From TrEMBL:
PROSITE patterns: RIESKE, RING_HYDROXYL_ALPHA
Gene Ontology molecular-function annotations: dioxygenase activity
A Pfam cross-reference name: Rieske
Keyword Iron: yes
Protein name, as recorded: Aromatic ring-hydroxylating dioxygenase subunit alpha
Domain Rieske: 41-149
Entry keyword set: 2Fe-2S, Dioxygenase, Iron, Iron-sulfur, Metal-binding, NAD, Oxidoreductase
Keyword Oxidoreductase: yes
Length: 436
């Protein structure tokens, strides 16, 4: 099936879409060309490159890049390929250096991407303008400690790309992204599934929670208290840029404060810096999760039982879904902690994260990956190529008028709905239909 045929199968409101979008190589080629070279992509947290010379190696789509803090203190993103013959310039995943030397012919670049040394330059080349062979740099901006980059020189500023969704990123970090740090290098692992399935799920799928994650919930991971005031609920949010989120709530009357599960000192800092409306959104909540288009997912939640004690412990995880092929994805899982939190609490938070959302997590992560893999697996077939999937949930439910939601963006209190899925694929489809 050709790409125009695949895109033509989408319902106008993205309430149905062809399953082949999760298996078709031509679709992935178009995504890499029209989304991953044009959008702002998250690459790292600034704490990973805290001092001059620090660097990490990452990917923008399938393009290898170096995220480096130069001697001038600026963070830059540059292509991780020698401009001579294209070999991988830096093979380490992280480190600190002032220069990168190509292992093939020893061309040497400084940590801003400028070509500084070419062996035998005069006898080999005669007159040689080294500046014409500097590493290609991507536009780079930082928001709340999150490092983004884009290859598109004409792309809108990052602030416009984030739009109203920046409010939810502010809420995620208590109004101060510089107060956080990554607790060690991110976990890296691969799954046999299409990259979009993780993004759409993190973006707001409350429907799957009581079913796909029944075992950990019934096992008491979030406690067993029954207030008798009704069941949990949720609110989904989306913006025109395709960014999506969900806030899940405890039963009414539970009296859970905002930023539950963090040490008292950190909660006080959040209260001093976060907007008052943030506390109205997060009060009585048990989870905030979402996705920044196209592939940065996040979750902040509280685990009541971590395996060692029953004191509620919060964690914040960032998740990158990087396509390897249509049916294989590399996942990067970042655990973030407040810099000033006690070391013992940080360790508990990281444990809560990796036991539920990480490479070896036996709870939540294994449930989700099994379903992502199964959707990708069943999409590989002749009948699957003719099959459309249903994304219409909630489309016919009434939306509250007026809506008293204190946060920005469009929102509905229909936790079991696919509003965020439709918003995500509306943006996805707009990118894919643009001329290459």
């Amino acid at each position: 099936m050709s790409l125009p045929e695949v895109l033509g199968r989408f319902a106008p409101d993205c309430s149905s879409l062809p399953q082949t979008v999760f298996n078709d190589p031509e679709v992935l080629d178009a995504e890499l060309a029209r989304i991953f070279t044009r959008s702002w992509l998250f690459l790292a947290h600034e704490s990973e490159v805290a001092v001059s010379g620090d660097y990490v190696t990452r990917r923008m789509g399938r393009d290898q890049v170096i995220v480096s803090r130069g001697e001038d203190g600026q963070i830059r993103v540059m292509r991780n390929a020698c401009t001579h013959r294209g070999t991988l310039l830096c093979k380490a995943t992280l480190g600190n250096t002032s220069h990168f030397m190509c292992p093939y012919h020893a061309w040497t670049f400084d940590n801003t991407g400028r070509l500084r040394g070419v062996p035998e330059a005069r006898p080999a080349y005669g007159t040689f303008d080294k500046s014409s062979r500097d590493l290609r740099r991507a536009r780079t901006e930082v928001y709340q400690g999150l490092v983004f980059a884009t290859w598109d020189d004409d792309a809108e500023p990052l602030a416009d790309f984030l739009g109203d969704f920046a409010w939810y990123l502010d809420a995620l970090v208590g109004g101060d992204g510089a107060a956080w740090e990554v607790a060690g290098p991110p976990q890296r692992y691969t799954i046999k599934a299409n990259w979009k399935l993780s993004c759409e799920n993190f973006g707001g799928d409350g429907y799957h929670v009581p079913y796909a994650h029944r075992a950990p919930i019934e096992g008491g991971l979030f406690g067993t208290e029954d207030t008798g005031t009704g069941g949990p609920s949720g609110r989904v949010v989306w913006t025109p840029q395709g960014h999506t989120a969900r806030v899940g709530y405890h039963p009414a009357g539970s009296g859970i404060p905002a930023y539950h599960g963090y040490p008292d000192e950190q909660r006080a800092e959040f209260a001093a810096k976060a907007k008052p409306e943030v506390f109205a959104v997060l009060e009585n909540s048990d989870v905030l999760h979402g996705n920044v288009f196209p592939n940065l997912s996040f979750i902040q939640t509280v685990i009541t039982y971590t395996g060692d004690e029953v004191e509620p412990t919060a964690f914040l995880a960032l998740r990158l879904a990087l396509p390897i092929s249509p049916t294989e994805t590399e996942m990067l899982n970042f655990a973030l902690v407040p810099r000033n939190a006690p070391d013992a609490w940080k360790q508990k938070s990281v444990l809560a994260c990796v036991r539920t959302h990480g490479a070896a997590a036996g709870l939540f992560e294994s449930d989700d990956v099994d379903n992502f893999t199964a959707v990708t697996f069943t999409g590989d077939g002749a009948i699957a190529a003719r099959t459309d999937l249903d994304y219409s949930m909630g489309a016919r439910l009434p939306r509250p008028e007026p809506d008293d939601w204190p946060g920005p963006g469009e929102s509905v209190p229909h936790d079991h709905s696919e509003y965020t899925h439709r918003a995500y694929y509306t943006t996805w489809l707009r990118h894919l239909r643009e001329d290459a």
